[in-house]
């Protein structure tokens, strides 16, 4: 039982990170109908911004940690908006395939620029937040894990409030449903799309910091695997669906952790993806996605 | 109020509008009629900024708006209720109406506009919490017009408001269109395939055929025109 709870906790904290990244994929898909493959590298840049900011503040303090976290989120929000403005916007009226391939190009550009600028060798991420281990019965809970889950939940609640309670959030949903009609009521779609990229990239940066705290080694290719998993999580939850991305992330992280802790640990990725395939066979639009027939 | 001069629009190499010109005086209901593919929707989309003109000019209240993006054109008081209604299907009626007032920040004015929409379409008040996609075609049309009214327009362009609507609701919607024009002084440009109905409610009409205006004049006179009768009014 305690082993089960331990694994559940580990799984949820990994899943929370996947969920944070998945939200960015799903939001951008919602407004632009394409997968931003560079998103996983924004996650990596977030971790590196955190690494350098972490050197400037004293280790293991709450305020220092919060500063690093917010710095990385702001930095990545700007990066995401910059990428959209410079690379994706000029291609917006072309075929989606062009943007998709360009996104892969941006992803590679970030990864290999990262190798030049940061170097290819892995680095140890500083302990930016105070750490402690709590023992509950035979259960060991690290403050990092609690922190990951706590921050992820707070950010997801904040996102939900932004999307469903604010004017810009309603505009995001409107653009996603019908970009032309949104323009006709006076929405500047460029502003909304830019905002969406900023929001998604900020969440990816938070994911990057939280990931780096728990697996304290970072390198320019660190985004590839978590990015792929988060992409899968977004599909699993129903691409374009915000609660779906969160659910997909938590589910994938938990399943992966449980399999990783069993005798089949070698096959954990294979089994996690096999589960995905099975779920999609029965629910092709994802867990919370609605299968919509496009009206012409 | 609105003046269109020698407007040319094309989709790739296919030209959809071949130099049309017309003008709409303030306070009027003017209709643009014509068959399928005549260029009616293209005209509206070009005026509202969804499409770009190849050459020609659109002036609204004396200002050249030809090159403005759609959201800035709405901001000037020119609102377009598009063909097929285009309500935000997953948003509630309430949220759809709020989106209509996207550019307004004066809360009192938004509340006043909302009351006005409810007075024109009482059914919208009953359906506030329902998602727009679950409304009937007629109700969606009311919502689309209501959403446009939320933005306080001076000029309203309606694209095929009778399309896909239960026949008994069509006359209601047309009565409301006249009401909006008369009680609120909103100028209206009405695009319709149902030429009979459109000529009945409008003062002036333009007939569009394959991208050119082939006939223009007072609606009353056009209704009596034998040629028009034969082509559009069913004998």
Label this structure with key terms:
heterodimer; A: 296 residues; mainly alpha; two-stranded antiparallel ribbon; 11 helices; 4 strands; 4% strand; B: 235 residues; 10 helices; 10 strands; 39% helix
Strand order of the largest sheet of chain B: 6-7-8-3-9-10
Oligomer: heterodimer
Order of helices and strands of chain A: HHHHEEEHHHHEHHH
Q: Tell me, what's the shape of chain A?
A: globular
Overall, the morphology of chain B is globular
Helix share of residues of chain B? 25-40%
What's the quick description here?
The complex is a heterodimer of chains A (296) and B (235). Chain A is mainly α and 296 residues long.
How would you explain this protein's 3D organization?
- The complex is a heterodimer of chains A (296) and B (235).
- Chain A has helices at 2-32, 39-56, 62-88, 96-118, 143-165, 167-177, 179-184, 189-214, 224-237, 242-260, 268-282, and strands spanning 123-124, 133-136, 139-142, 217-218.
- Chain A has 296 residues and is mainly alpha-helical.
- In chain A, 51% of the residues are buried.
- In chain A, helix 9 crosses helix 10.
- In chain A, the strands form two sheets. Chain A has a two-stranded antiparallel ribbon.
- Chain A contains eleven helices and four strands.
- By secondary structure, chain B is of the alpha/beta class.
- Helices cover 39% and strands 26% of the residues of chain B.
- Chain B has a six-stranded mixed beta sheet with strand order 6-7-8-3-9-10, with helices on both faces. A four-stranded antiparallel beta sheet of chain B has the order 2-1-4-5, with helices on one face.
- The two termini of chain B are 34 Å apart.
- The mean pLDDT of chain B is 93.
- The interface between A and B is medium-sized, with 17 and 26 residues.
């Amino acid at each position: 039982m305690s082993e089960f709870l331990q694994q559940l906790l580990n799984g949820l904290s990994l899943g929370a990170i996947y969920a944070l990244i998945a939200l960015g994929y799903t939001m951008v898909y919602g407004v632009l109908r394409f997968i931003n493959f560079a998103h996983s590298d924004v996650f990596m840049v977030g971790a590196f911004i955190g690494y350098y900011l972490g050197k400037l503040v004293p280790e293991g303090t709450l305020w220092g940690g919060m500063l690093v976290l917010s710095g990385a989120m702001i930095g990545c929000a700007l990066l995401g908006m910059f990428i959209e403005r410079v690379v994706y916007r000029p291609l917006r009226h072309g075929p989606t395939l062009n943007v998709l391939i360009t996104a892969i190009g941006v992803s590679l550009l970030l990864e290999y620029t990262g190798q030049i600028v940061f170097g290819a060798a892995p680095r140890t991420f500083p302990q930016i937040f105070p750490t402690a281990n709590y023992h509950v019965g035979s259960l060991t809970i690290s403050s990092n894990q609690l922190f990951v889950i706590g921050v992820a939940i707070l950010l997801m609640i904040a996102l939900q409030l932004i999307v469903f309670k604010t004017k810009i959030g309603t505009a995001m949903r409107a653009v996603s449903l019908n970009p032309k009609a949104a323009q006709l009521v006076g929405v500047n779609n460029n502003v909304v799309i830019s905002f969406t990229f900023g929001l998604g990239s900020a969440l990816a940066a938070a994911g990057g910091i939280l990931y780096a705290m728990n697996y304290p080694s970072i390198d320019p290719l660190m985004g590839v695997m978590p990015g792929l998993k988060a992409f899968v999580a977004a599909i699993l939850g129903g691409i374009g669906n915000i609660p779906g991305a969160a659910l997909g992330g938590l589910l994938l992280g938990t399943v992966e952790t449980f399999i990783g802790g069993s005798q089949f640990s070698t096959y954990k990725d294979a089994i996690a993806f096999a589960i995905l395939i099975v779920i999609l066979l029965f629910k092709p639009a994802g867990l919370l996605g609605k299968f919509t027939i496009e009206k012409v | 109020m609105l003046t269109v001069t020698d407007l040319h629009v094309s989709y790739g190499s296919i030209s959809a509008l071949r130099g049309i010109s017309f003008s709409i005086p303030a306070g009027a209901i003017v209709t643009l009629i014509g068959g399928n593919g005549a260029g009616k929707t293209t005209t509206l989309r070009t005026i509202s900024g969804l499409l770009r003109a190849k050459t020609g000019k659109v002036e609204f209240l004396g200002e050249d708006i030809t090159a403005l993006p759609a959201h800035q054109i709405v901001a000037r008081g020119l609102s377009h209720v598009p063909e097929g209604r285009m309500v935000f299907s997953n948003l509630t009626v309430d949220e759809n109406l709020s989106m209509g007032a996207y550019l307004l920040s004066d809360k009192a004015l938004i509340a006043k506009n909302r009351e006005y929409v409810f007075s024109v379409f009482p059914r919208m008040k009953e359906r506030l919490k329902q998602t727009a996609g679950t409304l009937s075609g007629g109700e969606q049309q009311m919502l689309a017009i209501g959403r446009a009214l939320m933005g306080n327009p001076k000029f309203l362009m309606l694209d095929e408001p009778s399309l896909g609507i239960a026949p008994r609701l069509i006359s209601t919607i047309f009565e409301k269109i006249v009401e909006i024009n008369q009680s609120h002084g909103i100028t209206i440009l009405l695009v319709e395939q149902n030429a009979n109905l459109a000529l009945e409610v409008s003062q002036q009409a333009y007939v569009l055929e394959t991208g050119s205006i082939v006939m223009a004049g007072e609606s009353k006179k056009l209704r009596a025109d034998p040629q028009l009768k034969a082509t559009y009014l069913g004998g």
